[in-house]
Amino acid sequence: MRAVSCTPGARAAAASRGAVGQALAEFAIILVVLMLLLLGIIDLSRAVYIRSVVANAAREGARYAVVQPKATPQATIADAAKAVVVDKSLAGSVAVSPSDVSVTWPDTDHVRVEVVCTYHPATALIAQAAGIGPGGIVLRGSSQMRREP
Predict the structure, then answer these.
(1) Which of 4, 10, 26, 89 is a plausible cystine mate for 57, CB 3.0–4.6 Å?
(2) Domain coordinates of the chain in residue numbers?
(3) Which of residues 69 and 11 earns the better pLDDT score?
C-alpha cells in the first residue's frame, strides 16, 4: 500500500479543485435558467415593439384619411390609407398587408383605422410554457379621428 502525503498544501489544493468543479457545475445549471429568462424578456420586448409599430401605423393611416377632401370617394381614401399603414409598418420592420388593415367610417365625420398583426415568438419553448399556441399572439392597433371640414 502506498502512503498518501497529508501535507497541508496538498489538502488545500485538493479542496480547491473540488470547489472549482462544484462552482462550474452550479453555474452550468443556473446558466440555462438565466438564458431562458433572457430570451423570454427579449421576446416580450419584441412583442411590445411590434404592438407599438402597429398602433403608430394605424394612427398614421387615420391621420392621412382625415385630411382628404370630403368629396373624395371613401373607397379611394381607404385604399390610400391602407397603403400608408403598410408603408409605416414596413418602416418599423413589421410586415403588414393591406388585408390586415380595416378602414371604416362610423359616421360621416369620423374615420377609424384598425390594424391586426400576428406575432410569433422566436422561442417556441418559452411560448409553449406561457400557453401561446402555434397561431401566435394577435396584436391590434386602432385609431379614430374626426375628419377636417
Answers:
(1) 89
(2) 8-146
(3) 69
Q: Determine the length of the chain.
A: 149
Write down the residue that cell numbers 368629396 correspond to.
71
Q: Which of 60, 145, 69, 140 is nearest to 105 (CA)?
A: 145
| Residue where the block lists cell 403608430 | 56
102 membership: H or E segment, kind and range: strand 101-107
145 within 8 A of 66, measured Cβ to Cβ: yes
Other CB atoms within a 10 A radius of the CB of residue 73 amount to 9
What's the pLDDT band for 136 if we cut at 50, 70, 90? confident
H or E element, residue 57: helix 8-66
pLDDT per residue as tens digits for the range 105-132 = 998 889 999 999 988 888 777 777 777 7
Residue 22: how many other CB atoms lie within 10 Å: 10
